[in-house]
Amino acid sequence: MEMLLHFSCLRFLLFCSMFITTFSVLDPISVSLLNLKAELIDGSNSLSDWFESSGEIPPEKIQACSWTGVICNNNSTVITGLDLSMKNLGGEISRLDFDFLNHLVGLNISYNLFSGELPGGIFNLSNLKVLDFSRNNFSGQFPSGISKLKNLVTLDAFSNSFSGELPVDIAEITTLRVLNFAGSYFSGPIPSEYGSFQSLEFIHLAGNFLSGNLPPELGRLKTLTHMEIGYNSYLGSIPWQFGNMSELQYLDIAGANLSGTLPNYLSNLTKLHTFFLFRNKLSGQIPYDFGKIKALTSLDLSDNLLSGPIPSSFSELQNLRLLSLMYNGMSGSVPEGIAKLKNLDTLLIWNNYFSGSIPQDLGRFSKLKWVDVSTNNLIGLIPPDICASGQLTKLILFSNNFSGGLSPSISSCSSLIRLRIEDNSFSGDISLNFNKLSEISYIDISRNRFTGGIPTGIFQAFNLQYFNVSNNSELGGEIPEKIWSMPLLQNFSASYCNITGNIPPFHSCKSLSVIELNRNHLSSTLPTSILRCGSLKLLNVSFNDISGSIPSDKVFRLMDTSSFIGNSKLCGAPLRPCHKKESGVERGSKRTQKIAWILITCAVVVLLLLLILFGILYRRRGSQGQWKMISYRGLPQFTANDVLKSFNSTETMEIMPALSGSICKAVLPTGITVLVKKFEWETKRSQFVLEFINRIGNVRHKNLTRLLGCCYNNNLAYLLYEYLPNGNLTEKMGMKRDWAAKSKIVTGIAKGLCFLHHDSFPAVSHGDLKASNVILDENMEPRLAEYGFKHLAQLNGGLNAATMYWLKEDEFSRAIKEELYIDIFNFGEIILEIVTNGRMKNAGESIQKKQKESILKEIYDENEANSSKSLQEEINLVTEIAWRCTTTRSSDRPSMQDVLKLLSGLKS
Question: Transmembrane segments in this chain: where (predicted)?
Answer without folding.
Answer: 595-618
